[in-house]
Specification:
The complex is a heterotrimer of chains A (228), B (328) and C (744). By secondary structure, chain A is of the alpha+beta class. Chain A contains six helices and ten strands; from the N terminus they run E-H-H-E-E-E-E-H-E-E-H-H-E-H-E-E. Chain A has a four-stranded mixed sheet. In chain A, strands 2-3 form a two-stranded antiparallel sheet. Chain B has eleven helices and no strands. In chain B, helix 3 packs antiparallel against helix 5, helix 6 packs antiparallel against helix 8 and helix 9 runs antiparallel to helix 10. The radius of gyration of chain B is 22 Å and the shape is globular. Chain C is α/β, with parallel strands linked by helices and 744 residues long. Chain C contains 26 helices and 30 strands. In chain C, a hairpin with an 8-residue loop joins strand 4 and strand 5. The radius of gyration of chain C is 26 Å and the shape is globular. The N and C termini of chain C lie far apart (56 Å). The chains are: A alpha+beta (228), B mainly alpha (328), C alpha/beta (744). At the B-C interface, helix 11 of B face loops of C. The complex binds ligand MGD (2 copies), iron/sulfur cluster (SF4) (5 copies) and molybdenum atom. One iron/sulfur cluster (SF4) binds next to helix 1 and helix 5 of chain A.
């Protein structure tokens, strides 16, 4: 059983937000419009945080893409009263839209604030809907959603590999954000395979995990700036 | 009132007149109040209907206050519900005899506050029509609720508490139902006959009833304490800064008793005035409750102070961010 | 067709849609009550093509799937089977994109399925600008165009054509041959952020009029002046890819990056050091660094001796640019200038890149590359092989400003507008608007009712890039030959026609010289034709002795490129051009207008051309996280003196005009500068773009740059006054009062 994980090399990231739009395109994320956006209701399964540091003229800005960290000890999971969010055997924090009753408890308990609630049923004025990805369900009003590590891509690749009677190859699965990123900031793969690229990158001395002190055991490893 | 021999001048006849009177004649004021409350309910249901139809986005909530008024209303009403337990059960257990005229009122508040409070977890759902998925019932898909979730604990605790308090309200009412049965005519007689459960007032019945009430009083106290502790765990079991505090259990219980007493006092003032019970609800009751209110407010202040003090002393960056946003 | 066959055919035949899409002909429309046998929903195919959202020319690969679509057939909505584009990814084999895309590239599929797309030819039915149009058929529309052209053929310069900068490849050939064949056409390209000065500077320095290929992926030191490498400058995706390599792509090597510009852009945010220079002093800074390098003899003497001309005169003239002399003007400490110059000269391979309105400043910046021997070297500036039709015209084309004068003088009888929206992007839009009133016939080829299209009498909507044939030679490229192919990924969604085909058809109808100049059957054939040279080279990513077989491979690969060809060397010797740099001028009197205005193309919308896409509107701006609007950036110190806070609406006035926008407190901005992004402020352009924010281009003026022949913006000073209104810009996560930083 593969254990999916990701690395984010902050030293490569330019904050260009291609990953953000790619996730919208792949995962049927709705746009909510200015009124809803103004009260903080946009859906960004991956966001690029920008931190200002210092004051003029010694000011700097740093970027950090943040998506669901697919925590091994995910605090969002135990609080869900109906098991709508749970852990899969391959290490994903899964979200079952059909089962979600919309308590928002999981979002309250995600320290990374990467869970997004569907406050209203979204609409795509025709023919914008023709772009929608049929592999990903549309979330109606009252449902929680979040980065799935593009689970539809994982399953498609696994199906294909199974049809061809082989194992999934390293690098065969790319998440949408990873694929879009021109700087190759993101690497996705099987952390249980020491030979996979993601395992090798995750071993870097620059590596750390976000809010690791909370004990959530994130599956996403960040690499800070600096020499390897 | 279950045993109305509080003061010598009260004859049984007079007590029955004073206390049963409102049961048998309905004044215009009653209808006015009823209409007003129905209007409030109607507005509530229209608002909720809109929320169900258009989407829960109609309530102006968003990150980080995903629950907002719903959780505060929930905590508020569950807190109020502690009136009955404390006043009635604790005072009974410590055999504070002055409690007698106020216990019924307190127990009723408990039950109704619980009913109100338990609506909020349903109203707040994104898909409220699916609330029953939180009920563990056998189903062909073998889908069970998640017993790890504090919301599930809430669900169970509130149901337990509700069952307990209804029982605890009802038991001492049995002899009174019998009195009402004996005085009533028509459909009311049928109603009270059913509710009186064939009470005849024999010595044996009284002994057993007292025993049952005593047992319920002992059971209901830990249940009440656990309910508000569990409500506090909705917060305390998370990893959110300033939510996962170890003092939330007693803090919430203290706050609940505090607001429960306050609610009881308000109810007593109204009942005393409008049902003309000046001779039953005496200054001593208000005085004693007032002292308890003072005690609980001091306790509550202590917890609040501690909450902020510990956060400030700990000086965690995430905690301090919330700290400043709360106090500034 | 069975699923398996779909999968078998789709990847091998480039234009999967051509074969798979049954919806082109009405008789094949199938009501989907009963799914047909050959319906394979959920099966995917990938078709390679070209992103045309900016001039970078990234190769893409598009995921297409069969599904059902509701379309209007004979006025009735019908559910039909169709192939639809789902997702755009970078073509992993393409040398520019290297598999990546930018946010605008990702979002461009929304333009294909935009609810406000023009769905067929339109004829004006109300007053100009009213947006009242009547739908007409192509059969009726084409004669309207052809008749006008026929009538005006004998009047010199009666027909003018305004185009954007990005036309390249066969499409450019068609336009130019149409213009020369027809004889009466004035082609005025206009782009508000025209890189023509860079091309001119490169021509002066290297002898090749080409935008520079900056190979910083292989450099150890990158020195950038004003270039917004990762937002909109020349080839953003290529630059972002290079940045990843520059930082962590080479074990043991991590490049150093210094950015000099008045505002800490997204690019500067990535730099190790940011030099907040005064606007317009980039050339002075470059020369001052050159002074240090030469004075300390850190320059590459071998390269200078063998590959350059004019060094001694040039170095002698550097004397007046010593750090101590220019430091006050540039506002960078002399020791910092000297230190950066030393680092640049010693940590080779190093490379300098710059963007400026001033050709002389650019010449100074690109001369730095000669000092470190960066020309033609890996990690330096590479040269693209010259490709005939892609090169800029030898003599500067008539510019838009003189065209406006001609229009106002009633000399222009018909105007064709394609791939540009000057009524939004030209500072003198009011002048242009009134000049348009004197043009009797305006044709637009726009896909959207933008500010310019809404003035047209006839709209002949073009295809979306995913529906058309195109070929493209990127400029800048990567230093070896590249010809990218754009092919129809899906069948046209609406009743549109490729503008190239419209011009070809018009040429045929006109006959004579125009027809002779354009001997192509259609764009598909012309594009195919353009790959003949590549075929003949018998090298590159795909080869085949048979041209048809070769072209089939090209469609599958998404183009042709030859990574193994020998890199181009500079044509002759690198020329040191006598330094002639002064600090940039800013119009307006300093007392009345205390601040310098810095406008920049926004990361999401560039010059505004992608403001109609909802994904980009809701994409938080990388630096400010603002969505759905625009803002004015003010340094917090300046804000304190102005007495404004975040969200206070500020009235910014220049000698040209004024606008009102909410303040964003921007720590990375010089206190004497006020910055505003370009892109918002549309009055037209569909439901998502219209009436949002303000267009700062109105604050500046245009001027014709004699050196490059481009119409550029002038620098202006502005004043800023509080209006008293408060209007917080919509920011991502704005409602979270405090967000605990995730950093450790
Ligand atoms: N995320 C998510 N996962 C789910 C579910 C869900 O709701 N959501 N639902 C679950 C349920 S209820 C089910 S039943 C399963 C269904 O899961 P699967 O049984 O995997 O269902 P399909 O993908 O519909 O079809 C299986 C394969 O059968 C092939 N096939 C079609 N006809 C024939 C035939 O005549 N002979 C043979 N040999 N092959 C044929 C198809 O081409 C396809 O490849 O998915 C389960 N998994
Ligand atoms: N188009 C299409 N149709 C299909 C199929 C397909 O692949 N495509 N597959 C077919 C197959 S194999 C199957 S099994 C069926 C499945 O058909 P359905 O059983 O209709 O399947 P789901 O859509 O998964 O819906 C289950 C419903 O259960 C609700 N639900 C979730 N948890 C609970 C709970 O605890 N209690 C209750 N009461 N409800 C709950 C969800 O909200 C959802 O509305 O569909 C069949 N039809
Ligand atoms: S696409 Fe890559 S470089 Fe751009 S913001 Fe995302 S992670 Fe960073
Ligand atoms: S990041 Fe948040 S949503 Fe994702 S697994 Fe961790 S706690 Fe859950
Ligand atoms: S919002 Fe949905 S997934 Fe989250 S805790 Fe509630 S029911 Fe579970
Ligand atoms: S992994 Fe997939 S779902 Fe998650 S952020 Fe990236 S694109 Fe979105
Ligand atoms: S840089 Fe972006 S918009 Fe420009 S061609 Fe490349 S992907 Fe398209
Ligand atoms: Mo099933």
């Amino acid at each position: 059983m593969p254990q999916w994980g990701m690395t984010v090399d902050l030293d490569r990231c330019t904050g260009c937000a291609a990953c953000v739009v790619a996730c919208h395109a792949e995962n049927n994320l709705p746009t909510v419009g200015p009124e809803q956006a103004s009260i903080g209701r946009t859906h960004q399964w991956i966001r690029v945080e920008r931190y200002w540091e210092g004051e003029f003229p010694n000011v700097r800005a740093k970027f950090m893409p943040v998506m669901c960290q697919q925590c091994d000890a995910a605090p969002c999971e135990p609080v869900c009263p109906v098991n709508a969010t749970y852990h899969t055997h391959d290490g994903l924090n899964a979200q079952v839209y059909n089962r979600c009753v919309g308590t928002r408890f999981c979002a309250n308990n995600c320290p990374y604030t990467v869970r997004f609630f569907t406050w209203f049923t979204p609409s795509w004025p025709s023919p914008l809907n023709e772009q929608l990805n049929p592999d990903v369900s549309i979330r109606t009003s009252g449902i929680m959603e979040k980065c799935t590590f593009c689970v539809q891509r994982i399953r498609r690749a696994e199906d294909r590999a199974k049809d061809e009677k082989r194992a999934v190859k390293d690098g065969e699965i790319q998440t949408a954000c990873q694929q879009a990123c021109p700087a190759k900031v993101l690497v996705f793969g099987d952390l249980s395979d020491p030979e996979s690229e993601v395992s090798k990158v995750a071993d870097s001395r620059r590596g750390y995990r976000l809010l690791a002190e909370l004990g959530t055991r994130p599956r996403v490893v960040y690499l800070k700036e600096g020499d390897a | 009132m279950a045993n109305p021999q509080a003061a010598p001048p009260f004859t049984e006849q007079r007590i029955n007149k004073d206390l049963l009177g409102p049961l048998f004649k309905t004044g215009t004021k009653y209808y006015a109040v009823l209409a007003m409350l129905l209007a409030v309910s109607l507005v509530t249901f229209v608002a909720w209907g809109r929320q169900l139809f258009f989407g829960i986005g109609l309530v102006g909530k968003n990150r980080p206050s995903f629950w907002g008024l719903y959780i505060t209303s929930f905590v508020f009403w569950i807190g109020i519900s502690h009136a009955g337990t404390l006043i009635s059960a604790i005072l009974r257990v410590v055999q504070a005899e002055w409690r007698r005229p106020i216990t019924r009122c307190a127990e009723a508040i408990t039950t109704f506050a619980l009913c109100t409070g338990s609506l909020f977890p349903i109203i707040h759902l994104g898909r409220a029509w699916l609330f029953f998925w939180m009920i563990p019932y056998p189903n062909s898909r073998h889908l069970w609720p998640n017993f790890q979730s504090p919301l599930m604990w809430d669900f169970i605790a509130i149901n337990t508490y509700l069952t307990g308090s209804v029982t605890y309200l009802y038991l001492p009412m049995i002899p009174d139902m019998a009195v009402a049965r004996d005085k009533a005519t028509g459909w009311r007689k049928k109603l009270y006959r059913t509710l009186a459960l064939g009470w005849r007032g024999t010595e044996r019945e009284w002994v057993r009833l007292e025993k049952a009430i005593g047992i319920m009083a002992l059971i209901i106290i830990p249940v009440a304490v656990s309910v508000h502790t569990i409500v506090s765990w909705d917060f305390a079991m998370t990893v959110m800064p300033m939510w996962h505090s170890t003092i939330f259990g007693p803090y919430f219980v203290a706050g609940a008793i505090f607001s429960g007493i306050a609610a009881l006092l308000i109810a007593m003032v109204l009942i005393r005035k409008y049902f003309h019970l000046e001779h039953y609800l005496l200054p001593v009751h208000f005085d004693n409750l007032g002292r308890m209110l003072l005690l609980m407010s001091l306790l509550w202040f202590y917890f609040t102070f501690t909450e902020y003090l510990v956060t400030w002393y700990g000086n965690g960056p995430a905690e301090m961010a919330v700290f400043w946003s709360k106090i500034s | 067709m069975k699923r398996r066959e779909f999968l078998k055919i789709a990847p091998t035949v480039g234009a999967a849609s051509v074969i798979l899409d049954g919806c082109g002909k009405p008789e094949k429309l199938i009501p989907l009550l009963v799914a047909p046998d050959d319906f394979a929903p959920g099966e995917e195919a990938w078709v390679r093509s070209l992103c045309q959202s900016c001039s970078a020319g990234c190769g893409i690969t598009v995921r297409v799937m069969q599904g059902e679509s509701v379309r209007t057939v004979d006025g009735q909505p019908k559910r039909v089977k169709a192939v639809m584009a789902k997702k755009i990814e970078g073509n992993p084999d393409h040398p520019i994109s290297m598999g990546g895309t930018c946010a605008r590239g990702q979002a461009s599929v929304q333009a294909l399925y935009h609810p406000d797309r023009i769905q067929g030819p339109l004829k004006l039915s109300g007053p100009r600008g009213s947006g009242q149009y009547q739908s007409i058929s192509w059969k009726d529309a084409m004669p309207l165009l052809v008749a006008q052209l026929q009538q005006l053929q004998s009047t010199p310069k009666a027909v003018a054509l305004v185009g954007g900068r990005r036309n390249r490849g066969t499409f450019r050939t068609v336009i130019e041959r149409f213009a020369s064949g027809y004889g009466a056409t004035n082609v005025a390209p206009y782009d508000p952020f025209d890189p023509a000065p860079i091309r001119k500077a490169m021509q002066m320095v290297t002898g090749i009029a080409q935008l520079p290929v900056v190979d910083f992926a292989n450099a150890h030191y990158l020195l950038s002046f004003n270039a917004s490498l990762f937002e909109t400058f020349l080839s953003p995706v290529r630059h972002i890819y290079s940045y990843g390599m520059f930082r962590q792509g080479r074990p043991g090597i991590r490049g150093k990056f210094v950015q000099a510009e008045p505002r800490l852009s997204q690019t500067a945010a990535c730099a190790d050091e940011w030099l907040p220079i005064k606007p317009g002093t980039e050339g002075l800074l470059a020369l001052s660094m050159a002074h240090v390098i030469v004075a300390e003899e850190l320059h590459d003497k071998d390269f200078l001796a063998q590959g350059t001309n004019g060094f001694s005169e040039w170095s002698a003239a550097l004397a007046s640019y010593a750090p101590e002399t220019v430091a006050a003007q540039v506002d960078v400490k002399p020791n910092v200038i000297a230190r950066i110059a030393r680092e640049f000269a010693t940590r080779r391979p190093s490379v300098a890149v710059g963007d400026s309105r001033d050709v002389n400043s650019l010449v100074a910046i690109y001369a730095l590359n000669a000092l470190v021997g960066a020309y033609g070297m890996p990690g330096g500036i590479l040269f693209d092989p010259e490709v005939g039709e892609s090169a800029p015209p030898a003599s500067p084309a008539p510019d838009l400003l003189s065209l406006i004068i001609a229009m106002a003088a009633n000399q222009v009888k018909a105007l064709l507008v394609l791939d540009s929206n000057p009524l939004f992007t030209l500072p003198e839009q009011d002048k242009l608007r009134s000049a348009l009133a004197s043009v009797p016939f305006i044709v637009s080829f726009s896909s959207f009712l933008d500010e310019t299209a809404v003035m047209a009498d006839l709209i002949l909507p073009s295809h979306h890039p995913l529906e058309r044939w195109m070929d493209d030679v990127p400029e800048p490229g990567v230093g070896f030959p590249v010809r990218t192919l754009a092919q129809p990924v899906v069948q046209p969604r609406f009743d549109t026609r490729d503008t190239g085909d419209v011009l070809l058809e018009a040429a045929k109808a006109l006959g004579g010289r125009t027809a002779d100049a354009l001997p192509f059957a259609n764009m598909a054939a012309a594009v195919k034709e353009s790959f003949k040279t590549a075929h003949a080279s018998n090298a590159g990513n795909v080869t085949d002795s048979d041209f048809n077989a070769f072209y089939k491979k090209v469609t599958a690969a998404g183009g042709w490129w030859d990574t193994k060809s020998t890199p181009q060397a500079p044509k002759g010797k690198i020329q040191f051009v006598a330094p002639a740099v002064t600090a940039g001028a800013f119009a307006g009197e300093a007392g009345q207008f205390p601040f310098l205005l810095h406008i920049y193309p926004s990361q999401a919308f560039s010059d505004g051309r992608t403001a109609h896409l909802p994904w980009l509107q809701e994409m938080p701006d990388p630096m400010t996280t603002v969505m759905w609007g625009s803002w004015v950036e003010v340094n917090p110190q300046t804000a304190a003196t102005l007495g404004v806070h975040e969200g206070d609406v500020l009235k910014v006035s220049s000698p040209q005009g004024s606008l009102e926008l909410p303040v964003y407190l921007y720590p990375g901005l010089r206190p004497d500068v006020i910055a505003i992004p370009v892109g918002q402020g549309h009055t037209q352009f569909g439901r998502y773009a219209a009436n949002r924010g303000a267009n700062p281009l109105k604050l500046v003026a245009s001027t014709l740059d004699q050196g490059s022949g481009a119409v550029l913006q002038t620098g202006v000073r502005v004043s800023a006054a509080k209006t008293g209104r408060v209007e917080l810009p919509i920011q991502f996560g704005s409602d979270a009062p405090v967000e605990a930083p995730l950093h450790r």
